[in-house]
């Protein structure tokens, strides 16, 4: 397993993966130093994340390798269908998966998403529009949503 730590607007970000793809991206309390060398297997992920943060990328194309239960993988794959700049609710996500009684289980799976940003669990909000739950902290969720959908005033500059 290769790893690299890069600086992002969300703080130091840890990226891990191997020849099968990127398996983890985390921004939560990464206090380790920024990496001076980027492993070849992670170079494309680093490049695309930097493009995302500078506003020139809306879709990720590097290989990912999701590790979790079959249910978690199903939930995470449904997150990949949420378009850039759009949000959905946990209820809508549960309808899409086909089990409206599984809202809590879906929310729990979202919270265990190992590929923050790329598998966009930040795009799932409460039915009332509230910013509910985000493993890396609500301020990061708010930042990501604003980054993906700036107000019209921000777009003018």
UniProtKB/TrEMBL annotation:
It is an enzyme of class 2 (transferase). Residues 6-65 form the Methylguanine DNA methyltransferase ribonuclease-like domain. It comes from the Bacteria. One of its GO terms (molecular function) is methylated-DNA-[protein]-cysteine S-methyltransferase activity. The keyword RNA-binding does not apply. It is found in: Cytoplasm. Pfam families: DNA_binding_1, Methyltransf_1N. One of its GO terms (biological process) is DNA alkylation repair. Its EC number is 2.1.1.63. Residues 70-149 form the Methylated-DNA-[protein]-cysteine S-methyltransferase DNA binding domain. The active site is at residue 121. It catalyses: a 4-O-methyl-thymidine in DNA + L-cysteinyl-[protein] = a thymidine in DNA + S-methyl-L-cysteinyl-[protein]; a 6-O-methyl-2'-deoxyguanosine in DNA + L-cysteinyl-[protein] = S-methyl-L-cysteinyl-[protein] + a 2'-deoxyguanosine in DNA. Gene3D superfamilies: Methylated DNA-protein cysteine methyltransferase domain, Winged helix-like DNA-binding domain superfamily/Winged helix DNA-binding domain. This enzyme catalyzes only one turnover and therefore is not strictly catalytic. According to one definition, an enzyme is a biocatalyst that acts repeatedly and over many reaction cycles. Belongs to the MGMT family. Involved in the cellular defense against the biological effects of O6-methylguanine (O6-MeG) and O4-methylthymine (O4-MeT) in DNA. Repairs the methylated nucleobase in DNA by stoichiometrically transferring the methyl group to a cysteine residue in the enzyme. This is a suicide reaction: the enzyme is irreversibly inactivated. This is Methylated-DNA--protein-cysteine methyltransferase. It comes from Mesonia phycicola.
